[in-house]
Amino acid sequence: MEKNIFLEKLMTGLAKTRDTLSRNLDTLLFGEKALDRELFEELEELLIAADLGPQFTHDLIDDVKEKIKRHELGNALQIKNILRERLAAILRPVEKSMTIPNGEPYVIMVVGVNGSGKTTTIGKLANLLKNDGHEIMFVAADTFRAAAIEQLEIWGKRVGAPVIRQKMNADPAAVVFDALGKVKGGYSGVIIVDTAGRLHTKVNLMEELKKVKRVIGSQLKGAPQEILLVLDATTGQNAVNQARIFKEEIGATGIVLTKLDGTAKGGVVVRIAHELALPVRFIGMGEGLGDLRVFESNDFVAALLD
Questions:
Q1: Which helix (H) or strand (E) holds 85?
Q2: How far apart are alpha carbons 80 and 162 in whole angstroms?
Q3: What is the per-residue pLDDT for 208?
Q4: What is the three-class DSSP state of 301?
Q5: Whole-angstrom Cα distance, residue 166 to residue 197?
Q6: pLDDT for residue 288
Q7: ω into 54 cis (within 30 of 0)
């Protein structure tokens, strides 16, 4: 029942994206449409407007043309089936939920630019993991914004997770060092590290994050086990650029796509999956505690096209 409710919410949230993609596609393909250059140009414009990206669009149109050559495509309406198959083929491999073992410390380093919904995502993620029986501890390593520390403490109270913090402008790596000392004291739960989203320059930000990552690794072998990148779906192309940078610079291992509700740019998840092959761990559909869910490709494709 709960899954059905979330699917309905996903369908509602992606309504603008679906209008841009599916309904416009139905209008384009309806009737006796010739499979010609004009149709392909209109199709290209439509797919790019839905934020599916030029590479995906190019590949899809090539696929359609190839099927026409092989006489496997009789009319324009079948193009929607090809689109469905391609979306599923791209999204299925990145449908990878996190596997967190019980009884041993597990560090999740959460990264992303300010405004992406990072701290809120941490709170919702903690709620999910708590419901699965995990013990949670927060680390306030975003020491450059007082509001970030306060917000994390509010979430800590809400979900019953202690917060390791120092004063504002403290060295984030020092905060992490203190927190990992809890592991030596016997802590064996999940440690979620909130990090800064913006420093003076991109270089400064990345160097700070690399330092935090090194300190985590020096205190606990094999950690952080997950570097979770939080992306704001409404930013479209910017989300793709951020994903590329955080993957290359920090080694992001998975993404959370937030603010999917009400955006016309929901197709960006397809683009990120296609171009970067980063696992999509979770999607966020609202501000509520239960509005973060494990990503399921079949549900997502259905919400985009049905």
A1: helix 79-91
A2: 49
A3: 92
A4: helix
A5: 18
A6: 81
A7: no
Which of 204, 233, 216 minimizes the C-alpha distance to 173? Answer: 216
Q: What is the mean pLDDT of each successive set of 10 residues along the chain, which is 306 residues long?
A: 71 84 83 81 88 89 87 80 92 94 94 91 96 96 90 95 94 95 92 84 83 96 97 89 93 94 82 93 86 92 88
| Whether 122 contacts 110, CB under 8 Å | yes
Ramachandran angles phi, psi of 140, nearest 5°: -85, 80
**Neighbouring-strand partners of residue 190:** 106, 136
Helix then strand count (H, E) for the chain reads 13, 8
For position 1, what pLDDT does the model report? 45
Please tell me the predicted confidence (pLDDT) of residue 127: 95
Structure tokens, 155: 């979430």
pLDDT in tens, 137-155: 999 999 988 789 999 999 9
Q: Smallest Cα–Cα separation from 11: which of 24, 22, 27?
A: 22
**Of the candidates 178, 183, 134, 186, which has an alpha carbon nearest to the alpha carbon of residue 159?**
134
**So what's the pLDDT on residue 19?**
83
End-to-end CA distance of the chain: 20
Q: What is the pLDDT of residue 2?
A: 61
SS3 258: strand
pLDDT value, residue 204: 84
Q: Which two structure tokens, joined as six digits, stand for 16?
A: 């603008």
Which residues touch 240 (CB under 8 Å, ≥6 apart)? 53, 268, 271, 272, 275, 276
Beta strands, E only, 6-152: 106-111, 136-141
Helix (H) or strand (E) segment spanning residue 283: strand 280-284
| Cβ-Cβ contacts under 8 Å for 24 (sequence gap 6 or more) | 46, 49
What single letter denotes the amino acid at residue 25?
L
Contact 233, 239 (CB under 8 A): yes
